[in-house]
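Batch manifest, entry 17 of 40.
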Amino acid sequence: MVRFAVSSMFFHEYTLDEIFDFVAEAGLDTLEFWVETPDFWLRGQPLPELISCLSSRPALHPLTMHAPILDLNPCSINPRVAEASVEYCLASLMMAKRIGAEVLTVHPGRRTAKRPPGAADFRRFDHYLSLLESAARRTSVRVSIENMEKKVNSLLCTPESVREILDREHWLSFTLDVSHALGVSLEEVATYIDLCGERLGNVHLSGANGGTMHLPVEDNPDITTILHLLSDAGYQGVITFEFEDRNFNHDLSSEEKILFLARQAAVVRESLG
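Output type: structure tokens
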């Protein structure tokens, strides 16, 4: 059965307790906890507090998680940056194990220069995946790699490149970022689902318009089509709303964010029947 979540980064400025309360008030089923959520990350990642928040709200269990990506790049040409990026990702996997999260979404990294990735970048990517695989096999957490926005230096920004990795890395799942794909076309999203749908571990759902990503899903016929494609593909995992609150014309209060999320969830539930 499909469960609905939101990225904790939508409540960027709030405490852990408030974020968990807001998710429940919005009527969502669970939360994608982004490790870089400021109240958690900037206080040294107090894991007992996160566990307490979840323990006191068992209806939201199990969570999904998103590994750190800000200022990080496991494919960096700077060895220290690459090493730190991989270490943060591996630590997130152990954190996901500790809290009983079912999925950890990770990013593939990118070429440091704004040029197409080359052989050296993919060697660093392969090294990153090998370390992730070794750690993941000691947990029950599904590691799920996300498709990137199509940019010149992006790795894994086409359906074919994701399929190639999934064929090679049988342990790996796939997080479909709808907005990243929809920035190309609706057909691009359909191709991702067609080629990779049976390996989906998570779906990040939001709209796109031109170069603007992570927009609302209501009044968007493309989103309705995508939801039907996911349903036809038999997807029964988590659908995670991933909205950028800076896209609104004013700073939303917590009450406005809760009402907004409830409305988005209602739209999606209606589309799925």
